[in-house]
Design a protein that fits this description.
Elements: H1 13-24, H2 40-57, H3 62-75, H4 78-104, H5 114-125, H6 129-153, H7 157-185, H8 190-221, H9 226-243, H10 252-257
Helix pairs in contact: 1-4, 2-4, 2-5, 2-8, 3-4, 4-7, 6-7, 6-8, 6-9, 8-9
The structure holds fe (ii) ion (2 copies).
The site of one fe (ii) ion has 6 residues, from α4 and α7.
Length: 266
């Protein structure tokens, strides 16, 4: 994890707002008229966990919005709040699409799930945008593995397309959160940052185990063994850790502040 030769700058909130707006205009068409198109055997493997993810995707984002509003005010970046609003709208679209699929398949929605309850409790207890974004990065890392597994586990054109759209959206979501964490970690002294990452690893191990326990049936139907899932989760999270490393980015405003040393020969 060293500094890159020509690292990119983190995107501005205005750039993220533009991205989310453009993304909403280029959604993949979902063949809803085709019906659920899922066999009872396939449905048995994925229905329970899909209901839980559907519930998880449909948060109203109240606590995130409050944390984002405080962060936007503290950093003088009001557009950040707009970006977070658009981010929440995408998550709600995921929930709505999954709900529509469940309706087509005649599967009732879930109103409570222990994993969702734990995730909500964390979000409730974590008023700081940093902790919030950290938890979201971990859950979205697992979402990438989960929806890829569901897509492999079904022949349903509707469900496969819904998964594909979610997967497309989640990659930039991870980037959005990771860039914000890079901003937040930037001024942290190195030992504290190392401590932060150590805490991440412990927490991520727990989240990964919990996701496997709660969703192993669908994950297995999508071709994962525990070993493969564990390795894939850590590889994905490794990429997220690299993307939240402040050294992965150029910080132009700092570069401007660096004064040339007068006596240093050019
Ligand atoms: Fe999502
Ligand atoms: Fe997401």
């Amino acid at each position: 994890m060293g500094a890159e030769a020509n690292p990119p700058a983190v995107r501005t909130s205005a750039e993220w707002v533009a991205y989310f707006r453009a993304n909403a205009q280029r959604l993949l068409p979902v063949p809803w008229d085709a019906g659920a198109g899922v066999t009872p055997a396939e449905l048995a493997e994925v229905a329970d966990s899909l209901r839980a993810w559907q519930l998880g995707e449909t948060s109203d984002g109240r606590h995130l919005l409050a944390a984002a509003a405080r962060h936007a005010a503290a950093t003088g970046d009001p557009a950040f709040l707009d970006a977070v609003r658009l981010f929440i709208a995408e998550e709600q679209r995921h929930g709505a699409d999954l709900g529509r699929f469940l309706d087509l398949a005649g599967v009732p929605w879930k109103t409570w799930d222990w994993g969702d309850a734990a995730f909500r409790a964390f979000r409730y207890l974590l008023p700081r945008i940093e902790l919030w974004a950290t938890v979201v990065v971990m859950v979205e890392t697992h979402a990438l593995l989960y929806y890829a597994a569901v897509r492999r586990a079904t022949g349903s054109a509707v469900l496969r397309r819904v998964c594909e759209q979610i997967l497309r959206d989640e990659v930039p979501h991870l980037r959005f959160q990771c860039e914000r964490l890079a901003v937040l970690h930037r001024r942290r002294p190195r030992p504290l940052r190392a401590l932060t990452l150590a805490a991440h690893r412990v927490f991520f191990a727990g989240v990964t185990l919990a996701v496997w326990v709660g969703h192993r049936r669908a994950l297995r139907a999508g071709g994962f063994t525990f070993g493969r899932f564990w390795r894939a989760a850590w590889a994905r999270m490794g990429a997220a850790w690299r993307a939240m490393d402040p050294r992965a980015y150029a910080w132009p405003e700092e570069a401007r502040r660096v004064r040339p040393i007068p006596w240093f020969p050019e």
